[in-house]
TrEMBL record:
<dbReference type="InterPro" id="IPR009061">
    <property type="entry name" value="DNA-bd_dom_put_sf"/>
</dbReference>
<dbReference type="InterPro" id="IPR000551">
    <property type="entry name" value="MerR-type_HTH_dom"/>
</dbReference>
<feature type="domain" description="HTH merR-type">
    <location>
        <begin position="1"/>
        <end position="32"/>
    </location>
</feature>
<protein>
    <recommendedName>
        <fullName>HTH merR-type domain-containing protein</fullName>
    </recommendedName>
</protein>
């Protein structure tokens, strides 16, 4: 009833499930949407984070076991203390991130918006889970790495060169970006491909936001220059930064989903322009 290829495909799916890959991720790997090496790297990072999380939880349990008196109260106080320390460290790391990544000429009101796509102050509320605490540790490691800081600084400098910041208000930018994000998220949830009309229309709208009045309608040369600049700034470290942030701030997970589709769509459009 089944061909050898179909049986092999099933075995491969079962193997990937054993290694804790998600169904959606497996589907995209088999379809070739995610390179296998990249998916493996992501999974290794996820497992490293899980190991750190489990080690942290184990340490709390061991300390509780050694305590005298009400173990549950001691455990509660210990976790409260860890959470408070984590939030203070989080603020310190974010301040360090902003001071090290952004040049002095980069407008202060744009820093939070550009780096994460959201207002950081809205993410600092509530306790951090064990997994978020482990992600925070990893984020701190990243910003102690001069190479990663250089890459991120180069990324924001490129943004400063492309965007006509004085001509775009933070409010207008936020509203337009939210609209584009919702459109792209809806397309991603419906498994739209990078070449689909709805995704490509979204890309055009996004690029239009960066064009000056003298550059309207957007020419192919402007689109190419803009797209190539964005794609050239992508790196493994920047992707890792986004993945860590999506764990630390669950509200960014939908941003990760649309971000990937966005860059795939940009790449597809450039390939089509090359053929023409």
């Amino acid at each position: 009833m089944y061909t050898a290829e179909e049986i092999w495909r099933l075995k491969l799916i079962l193997t990937l499930r054993y290694l804790n890959f998600g169904i959606d991720e497996i589907k995209r790997m088999l379809a070739g949407d995610i390179p296998v090496d990249m998916a493996i790297e992501w999974q290794i990072e996820a497992l490293d984070l899980q190991m750190r999380t489990l080690a942290s939880m184990k340490s709390i349990l061991e300390q509780t076991k050694k305590s005298e008196g009400d173990s549950l109260s001691y455990m509660h106080e210990l976790i409260e203390s860890i959470s408070e320390d984590a939030l203070e460290r989080e603020k310190f790391i974010l301040e360090k991130m902003f001071s090290s990544v952004f040049p002095e000429q980069f407008p202060v009101e744009w820093r939070e918006i550009v780096l994460l796509g959201v207002n950081i102050s809205s993410l600092l509320e509530g306790k951090l889970s064990a997994a978020q605490t482990a992600a925070l540790n990893e984020l701190e490691e990243m910003f102690n790495d001069p190479q990663i800081v250089r890459e991120m600084r180069h990324d924001v400098m490129s943004f400063l060169e492309v965007v006509h910041l004085p001509k775009i208000s933070v409010e207008m930018w936020t509203a337009r970006m939210l609209k584009n994000h919702k459109q792209l998220l809806k397309a991603a949830e419906q498994y739209a491909t990078p070449d689909s009309p709805v995704v490509q229309a979204n890309i055009q709208e996004y690029v239009l936001l960066f064009a000056d009045v003298e550059e309207l309608p957007v020419s192919q040369s402007f689109f190419r220059r803009f797209a190539e600049r964005l794609l050239s700034n992508q790196s493994e470290n920047l992707e890792r930064f986004r993945r860590i942030c999506s764990i630390l701030y669950p509200g960014l997970q939908s941003y990760m989903k649309t971000n990937e589709l966005f860059y795939q769509a940009l790449q597809w459009k450039l390939q089509q322009m090359d053929k023409e």
